[in-house]
């Protein structure tokens, strides 16, 4: 959905709802700390925490029934590689083989956007690039989960796991929703402009930042030979960790901003996604930041949690 449209589509409402949920969660975490003995607060913390921020959480034994290993994070990216790879292949087939897309995604997109697709619609360069970048991002994160990251015995909630499984499926459909209401004209090459190039450049820079951060985190648990020495979490240092507690979360936000730029910044839907990612990653970063401040007495007090010099 573009800014020129007044009404919100179903997909817009979905992302707006998710952004609102995490905004409420972020504020509630900040405000309700004095009720840490309340069982409802304990349930809330159990739902929003995962990994190292959850290990020392005091909770009832029945809540542990819903724990799944955090190392299952790779499942999310495996699904994304397969699903968004399929959507990318279908779109490339539509562009270069001039074949119509299957009716099943078209019907879903009609419902999500509220706009029927026309057969004469021109392929959008922005859509193809975002699909490609999203797939590349998923491949990189899958490889990092399998071959770079060193996971401890940390856990996440079953609700978080199910949400993660469906997240990239919905995200892939959202890319096509933007194409569904797109109004680009001409050939793919004639559609190329500086927004695409700037978005691509930011995507590369943010991806490198995130990869560097993941490598530094992994090295906290490995020796010089690369062998795992410990599963305990040490104080992160080096790189952008000198500026913020969670540069990998900041990089994630930049990646989504870069995808929005590829859509020329005109897609209201993608700005809602950026808003969701902002609150989601801000909450996760704040939980990590609080842990570091409480665990490491020498942890720099001036260091921000998420965005350098800001948050």
From TrEMBL:
UniProt topology in membrane: Multi-pass membrane protein
Chief location: endoplasmic reticulum
GO cellular component: endoplasmic reticulum membrane
The family this protein is said to belong to: Belongs to the steroid 5-alpha reductase family. Polyprenal reductase subfamily.
The keyword Oxidoreductase is assigned to this record: yes
GO molecular function, one term: 3-oxo-5-alpha-steroid 4-dehydrogenase (NADP+) activity
Protein name: Polyprenal reductase
Domain 3-oxo-5-alpha-steroid 4-dehydrogenase C-terminal: start-end pairs: 193-311
Key words of the record: Endoplasmic reticulum, Lipid metabolism, Membrane, NADP, Oxidoreductase, Transmembrane, Transmembrane helix
Task of the protein: Plays a key role in early steps of protein N-linked glycosylation by being involved in the conversion of polyprenol into dolichol. Acts as a polyprenal reductase that mediates the reduction of polyprenal into dolichal in a NADP-dependent mechanism. Dolichols are required for the synthesis of dolichol-linked monosaccharides and the oligosaccharide precursor used for N-glycosylation. Also able to convert testosterone (T) into 5-alpha-dihydrotestosterone (DHT).
InterPro entries in alphabetical order: 3-oxo-5_a-steroid_4-DH_C (IPR001104), Dfg10/SRD5A3 (IPR039698)
Bilayer-crossing regions: 6-32, 72-96, 158-176, 196-218
Reaction(s) this enzyme catalyzes, per UniProt: a 3-oxo-5alpha-steroid + NADP(+) = a 3-oxo-Delta(4)-steroid + NADPH + H(+); 17beta-hydroxy-5alpha-androstan-3-one + NADP(+) = testosterone + NADPH + H(+); a di-trans,poly-cis-dolichal + NADP(+) = a di-trans,poly-cis-polyprenal + NADPH + H(+); androst-4-ene-3,17-dione + NADPH + H(+) = 5alpha-androstan-3,17-dione + NADP(+)
Pathway named in the protein's UniProt entry: Protein modification; protein glycosylation
A Pfam family of this chain: Steroid_dh
Subcellular location: Endoplasmic reticulum membrane
Top-level EC class: oxidoreductase
The organism's place on the tree of life at top rank: Eukaryota
Any single GO BP term: polyprenol catabolic process
Listed EC numbers: 1.3.1.22, 1.3.1.94
